[in-house]
Design goal:
Length: 600
């Protein structure tokens, strides 16, 4: 029998311990991470652990009596589904009910109040000029009025700008920063005069020159214009305390897009109040927005916006006017249903239909703001009709039945392996155990990482994976048996069988993974849980077969119990009907002359 070729096969045959050590280290590291994170059990879906069910009722906008239609409802479902699920697999369900209702089911473990706000506050998004702003509640302290200097320094009070603690700026992607651009501009003083289209009354006035003036009391207040409506709004702004829940809820109640308003925004745990001008740009004017790393600047996170053709013109007009003002009248507030989620400042007109919002963003903050800008404008307005808690009694019974079915299936697989493969079960059963450990640990880690929730279809996907994993072992074992039937000993048979079995296993798993990927893409809700679990376990099957099953088989092939073909090893040559090993013998030398073939 020829010795195995030098190279990859010989190396894999002689050093299987490396692969076994690698997968052992991976299991220990993942298990340690699971316990370190404190999430030792997979996050369960609403059908298993219960959760919250929110019913939203669609309402026609004024002047649009026929807005409730299938197209708009489908668009609303898609927007809400993306907002709730984000980039992860949170297993929240968003679906229509009847012709005017949308039902959102949120699993236990998700912040139901936050989710309710996500689906219930996406109806109105506006870009409004900021006329005045200041912190409220205990955080409100008078600060000296200052103006941005050419050196880039300014007041010490943070600018209300979404979740960032430093001032954010909106710039054109191609625009070059100026000294004003690079300033953090954190002063909150209010100028005595405002630009046209930025005053509550709409009366054009000249821009203020020099340093903005603060009122004698030290607390910024909007300038009085004489109009009774404006004075009422200014009084509302002065009295507003955004740290009070009741006042905050009524801050922007009843305001129209074309009228000035007051609003609240929270930054780093501190509430700020805003006096805002009429809406200059609607949320529907934003084509898309995404969070990205600023590769040309400081490398921090930023939000990139693209506007529609109509929105690009509106945005260029408003930024051109705001850029001529001083802080905070060079800011525009991004207002989502009456709450300011960000207020970046500008120093030049932004044309071209593209803009970037940069600041002290974390990745989560940038993605959150991009999410608001992308999906903030629904074609309809919605109100929360009901919000109820869902029990998991029925789901618990189904889970119990599913686990029993899975246990029965696993037991049948083990019995099959013991009966037909005998000693080879020492390889198959530990491989199944390793696959189960990796699946469980990864599912537990994916809960807090991407909000993956284990629902009943996902459990079914895990049960189906038992058959996929067992099928890989059977392919490998049968290839080894075929080599033994050809008369080869065990160690060469293992190395010769592996390339053929490997090819078959990879093709089979690729088809399973492709089916899972397509199913995940084209479906929503619970079916995605099945597809995700099936795809995950298929990938793990490849990892286990390559790093555990094959190396373990190589190690056992060196043991006499298997190498000698014991009848209980599952590799008995006689029991497999193996051919006698081929032997080459030299023909003995004889006298010269013809030889009778029958005697040769």
């Amino acid at each position: 029998m020829a010795a195995p070729k030098r190279g990859r096969s010989a190396s894999a045959q002689s050093k299987p311990g490396r692969s076994l050590a690698l997968i052992l280290i991976a299991i220990v590291a993942l298990t340690g991470g699971m316990f370190a994170s404190g999430h030792t059990t997979p996050r369960l879906g609403i059908d298993l652990a219960g959760g919250t069910s929110i019913t939203l009722q669609a309402q026609n906008e004024p002047g649009q009596p026929n807005a409730i239609n299938k197209t708009n409802m489908d668009t609303a479902v898609e927007i809400m589904n993306r907002r709730v699920n984000g980039l992860g697999v949170s297993e929240a369900e968003v679906q229509t009910q009847g012709t005017s209702n949308i039902v959102v089911n949120i699993p236990k473990g998700t912040n139901s109040e936050e989710a309710r706000q996500q689906v219930g506050t996406t109806a109105k998004l506006y870009f409004r000029p900021v006329l005045a702003s200041e912190p409220t509640g205990k955080a409100a302290q008078p600060t000296p009025s200052t103006s941005p200097s050419s050196s880039g320094t300014s007041g010490s009070t943070p600018t209300p700008s979404g979740s960032a603690t430093a001032g954010q700026k909106a710039t054109s992607p191609s625009g070059s920063p100026t000294p004003t651009d690079s300033a953090t501009s954190q002063g909150r003083a209010v100028t005595d005069a405002l630009k046209a289209d930025a005053t509550p009354s709409g009366t054009p006035t000249a821009p203020a020159s020099g340093t903005p003036k603060a009122p004698a009391s030290g607390t910024p207040t909007p300038p009085a214009t004489g109009s009774a409506a404006d004075q009422k709004l200014q009084a509302q702004y002065t009295a507003l305390d955004c740290s009070d829940d009741a006042q905050r809820a009524k801050a922007d109640t009843g305001s129209k897009p074309g009228d000035p308003s007051v609003a609240c925004g929270k930054i780093s745990g501190v509430w700020y109040k805003y006096l805002l001008g009429p809406a200059a740009v609607d949320g529907t004017d934003v084509k898309n927005a995404q969070a990205a790393i600023d590769t040309q600047g400081a490398g921090g996170w930023q939000v990139q916006m693209n506007f529609t053709s109509a929105g690009a013109k509106k945005f260029a007009d408003v930024t051109g006017k705001l850029a001529q003002n001083q802080q905070p009248q060079n800011e525009f507030g991004i207002v989502l249903d009456g709450e300011v989620v960000s207020s970046p400042f500008v120093s030049q007109a932004i044309t071209g239909g593209q803009a970037q919002i940069s600041g002290s963003f974390s990745q989560q903050e940038a993605q959150s703001l991009a999410n608001v800008l992308s999906y903030g404008a629904l074609p309809l307005s919605f109100k929360v009709q009901s919000m109820t808690t869902v029990t998991a009694a029925l789901g618990g019974e189904q889970l119990h039945a599913g686990l029993i079915a899975g246990a029965i299936g696993l037991a049948l697989v083990v019995i099959y392996l013991l009966v037909f493969y005998r000693g080879l079960s020492i390889v198959a059963i530990p491989s199944l155990l390793v696959s189960a450990i990796l699946t469980y640990v990864i599912m537990a880690l994916l809960g807090p990482a991407i909000h993956f929730a284990l629902n009943l279809p996902a459990v079914c996907g895990a049960i189906v994976a038992i058959g996929i994993t067992a099928d890989s072992f059977i392919v490998f074992f049968e290839r080894i048996r075929d080599e033994i039937r050809e008369g080869r000993t065990l160690r060469p048979a293992v190395e010769r069988a592996w390339p053929r079995a490997r090819r078959t296993i990879l093709v089979s798993d690729f088809v399973s993974f492709l089916a899972a990927a397509v199913l995940f893409i084209v479906t929503v809700g619970k079916v995605q849980g099945f597809a995700f679990t099936l795809g995950l376990t298929t990938v793990l099957d490849v990892v286990v077969v390559f790093l555990f099953t094959k190396p373990l088989m190589t190690v056992l092939a060196r043991r006499r119990f298997f190498a000698d073909g014991h009848k209980w090893s599952g590799l008995d040559p006689k029991g497999l009907g193996a051919k006698p090993p081929l032997r080459r013998t030299r023909r003995p030398a004889g006298p010269a002359g013809p030889v009778d073939p029958k005697e040769a």
